[in-house]
Amino acid sequence: MKRAVKLIISGTVQGVFYRKFVKDKADDLNLNGFVRNIENGKVEAVLEGDSEKIKEMIEECKKGPKFSTVTSVEVKEERFQGLRGFYILHF
Fold it and tell me: Is the pTM of this model over 0.90?
């Protein structure tokens, strides 16, 4: 079953290769979407793909890469748009 979510990740998640971590995991799980830094030092990720793989990705986002400290991951259901590829977006 296909699903789309938006994640807002809080904590020490900028300047610690968090976006690259998310992209690498998304590529491994064959998910589509994007990840970017947003205001207040948070990271936003939009994920589309198989529901079970998105669940797995959410758990990975809660862990983060080696030097990150994740304090919360907000999950919001989104409308599936059929995105292609996974990208790191910059300001």
Answer: yes
